Predict the 3D structure of the following.
Amino acid sequence: SQQGEEDPQALSIQEGENATMNCSYKTSINNLQWYRQNSGRGLVHLILIRSNEREKHSGRLRVTLDTSKKSSSLLITASRAADTASYFCATGETSGSRLTFGEGTQLTVNP
Amino acid sequence: DADVTQTPRNRITKTGKRIMLECSQTKGHDRMYWYRQDPGLGLRLIYYSFDVKDINKGEISDGYSVSRQAQAKFSLSLESAIPNQTALYFCATSEGRYYGYTFGSGTRLTVV
């Protein structure tokens, strides 16, 4: 069963706009991670936020985590055509043994 | 060379055949994972291993087996392939609990 659910399933924006993707999950976690996948390729790790953190930044990426609402958001600022990809959230279970991935958000950035 | 190498990249096989997918890594990580990806279903964990003597089932291990031949090598076998095992298979490694995974480029498997 999937732990994380991304919203929206698909998002289409213009270059230069910001893109926001959301992830909700069901059980307690010790960290939450975001990954990017270009079509048919391997996933690339973007950012990790621990359960005791509320916000984290990495370049044009901003991740927030609200453990009381069991939700996270990924913000990509000033998007570029090269940001076109699928984005997945993944939750780390409290035992620390493995990640459970959501179904992903397909982001299209139009030039 | 890639940090995580999967072979083959693509494979078409017949129902009932045994097939092995191989994964090797140069990251020096102890933790290795096998996931499969189906359209619209995200990634689902098949097996994972934290060292050579440690093998654990994931959420969809039925019909699959694994072997951890060395710290750097983790192979996935389908003993008798069936069409609903057609999917994209990924191997990944991790340094530990608070580290991201490094994925291979995937093996696209088609069972006919």
